[in-house]
Design a protein that fits this description.
With 470 residues, this protein is mainly alpha-helical. The chain contains 22 helices and no strands.
Length: 470
């Protein structure tokens, strides 16, 4: 009966369909959370996916090529333009990458330097954080744009994608922010000697997320994003002031290595650093596409696709490259002076008295903005057509996320790793979905150019459905 009610929506209003999908999704998330805490999911997801490492590496290169091609795409995203270029960039950093660069800014290159086959540790760090992650996001965002404009996916596949995206959103954001809250709590204890329980931080930050959501996109989300980026720019200025004298020279070499070693780093050959770091990152970023792509599509309305590619790939990559060069060069110098790798972030941010406070504030702000964006994207995805979340659903998504993260923190690191690993296991489905999208887009282009003569009212959704169910 549940299956019948879920899939058969004839005669129901959009509001009834949205509510049915939302509550069935909430039930799915709670079941998955309980199963993760009980340890019912495999803890070796990366080993399970290892036969696909080569495919994942080539998929990363495909996404870069796809974005390069779409730099010349003048097709426009449906809708009216709502955000200026600066507001658009600010909102992009609300997608979780802000939290990530704060966590790995000082110690990733130091850890990569332990691998003998790494040619330039900071260059490889850049490889993990600029260009390719954003190309993943934009590739799936373009798929979303074409699907909205031309109704590419058949209904059954779109419904499957809706639940896949929703589950990946909760798994990815929940596990990542559980780790982020642990970092904030650890920083407060290490620097200020203040022991703040992680789950208490979740409740406090969740309240701020609710406040932002209730104020709406422009007065809440946009405002928090703008303030976060202003603080980030101030923090970067201090990083420049206290940076080692050779930072410019190191940065030039790192950027040269990023381009010069691009294929060496990204064509999978089974090297240990690729298994431990690069493929891990690609799997992580692909799983995040379920969250980032719908949000990028939403804030890109009224822009051309070439604008979406430029402002989503190029500008954030430049900002993150500067940040990661500054932080990781500082970390490399501290490691050379005998500072343990695990302590690098805490020692590095003590270079100036104001930096620890800004670090904690920035981490918290990025948590708020990322959770804010995730709640908005989740509602628009699951509700299936409701552009603006209503008040009770805004609160519900935040409460679900707070519950999800709190349970993970109380359950311990094993549960966090298990659920993050579960999100990784869905990555082959994301790649398969990408292949379907590419085929459908090619079919659309052929049809549009008149290279085939379709029957009257014979759309692409029917073509793919009949090919699968003749």
């Amino acid at each position: 009966m549940f299956k019948m009610n879920l899939f058969k929506t004839k005669g129901l209003s959009k509001h009834e369909i949205a509510n049915r999908r939302i509550w069935s999704f909430v039930a799915l998330v709670l079941v998955v959370l309980v199963m993760g805490v009980l340890g019912w999911f495999p803890s070796n997801s990366l080993s399970i996916l290892s036969p696909l490492n080569g495919l994942i590496g080539w998929f990363a290169i495909f996404c870069v090529a796809f974005c390069l091609i779409n730099l010349f795409n003048k097709e426009r995203v449906p809708g009216e333009k709502e955000f200026s270029n600066s507001a658009f960039i600010n909102l992009l950093f609300t997608l979780g990458m802000g939290v990530g660069i704060m966590v790995y800014a000082y110690n990733e290159a130091a850890q990569l330097s332990a691998y003998s086959d790494v040619r330039n540790p900071i260059g490889l760090t850049l490889n993990h954080w600029i260009l390719i992650p954003w190309c993943f996001y934009v590739t799936f965002a373009i798929f979303e744009i074409y699907d909205e404009k031309y109704n590419l996916l058949p209904k059954w596949l779109r419904l499957f994608k809706t639940y896949l995206y929703g589950l990946l959103m909760m798994l990815g954001i929940g596990t990542s922010f559980a780790l982020g809250v642990i970092t904030i709590s650890g920083a407060c204890k290490h620097i200020y000697g203040i022991d703040i329980p992680s789950y208490s931080l979740v409740v406090i930050l969740g309240s701020l997320v609710t406040f932002s959501l209730l104020r709406g996109v422009h007065r809440g989300m946009k405002m928090f994003a703008k303030v976060s980026m202003m603080i980030l720019y101030g923090y970067m200025l201090i990083m420049i002031i206290v940076a080692p004298a050779d930072t410019l020279q190191v940065g030039v070499k790192a950027i040269g290595s990023f381009f010069g070693d691009f294929f060496y780093n990204n064509i999978y050959t089974g090297r240990a650093v690729q298994n431990d770091w690069t493929i891990y990152y690609w799997i992580w970023w692909i799983s995040w596409c379920a969250f980032v792509a719908p949000f990028v599509k939403t804030i890109s309305r009224g822009r051309t696709i070439r604008e979406v590619v430029f402002f989503t790939v190029v500008i954030p990559s430049i900002l993150i490259a500067v940040f990661m060069i500054l932080g990781n060069n500082t970390g490399m110098h501290l490691m050379a002076d005998g500072v343990p790798v695990s302590d690098l972030p805490y020692v590095a941010i003590n270079a100036h008295w104001i930096m620890p406070l800004i670090f904690v504030i920035l981490m918290s702000m990025f948590y708020i903005t990322s959770s804010d964006s995730q709640s908005f994207a989740m509602d628009t995805t699951i509700s299936y057509g409701s552009k603006t979340p209503v008040v009770h659903r805004k609160i519900m998504w935040v409460m679900l996320e707070v519950l999800f993260v709190t349970v993970l923190l109380l359950a311990g690191s094993n549960s966090i790793s298990a659920l993050q690993g579960l999100s990784f296991l869905f990555v082959p489905l994301m790649i398969l979905l990408a292949i379907v999208y590419v085929v459908l887009i090619i079919m659309h282009i052929i049809k549009k150019k008149g290279m085939v003569t379709p029957k009257e009212d014979y759309d692409i959704a029917e073509m793919i459905t009949k090919s699968i169910h003749p």
